[in-house]
Amino acid sequence: MQPIRIVLCDDHRIVIDGLQRLLAEVPDIECVGTAQNGVEALFLLDHVQTDVLLTDLDMPEMDGAELVGRIQAREDRPKVIVLSMHEEPAMVERLMKSGADGYLVKSAGKDEVLLAIRNVHAGRKHFSSDLLASLMEERGKVQENSTLLAGLSEREVEVLAALAEGLGNKEIGERLFISPRTVDTHRTNLMKKLDIHNLAGLVRVAIKSGLVK
Q: Model's pTM, two decimal places?
């Protein structure tokens, strides 16, 4: 079988050298090129047959996020693994939607790096277990938040958000082009629907639902 052809992209030479030494010991994976930013990586992909691109996220000229997006338009698109220090679920989610096939943090060990390369080459996604756990937790919170507001009308959600900002009935009425009495009616309905009996409780729901920070 032909070895998996991989290109490494990172603006730190020590990272590139370390990965090259790691891959040199593996018979089924071959490093066919290195780049220090997204521009160099795209040039390499034009000239070297590549199965997997392993790229850093934070780089000059063209970072990993833009590189992932640019690669999606290629007919001969390689699989892409992002190797980064960032562990924020929102960042990982964005890169997944942009087309990344895998995501590893730079604390990953040799076995996980090799497993990720083999998995994405075989057509499977690979994200480290810690990152997957964080993503599942984040998605669970989003689901919980949307459930909290599920029974509210669009206008009630707008009033709830404004109340959480500390606005009074008159100010909310002016913002939403409704009368203060209508605002008061919406506030009463919100308390009934959410089974909450004071303004502080409404504010807590608004914050938990992500309506305000």
A: 0.63
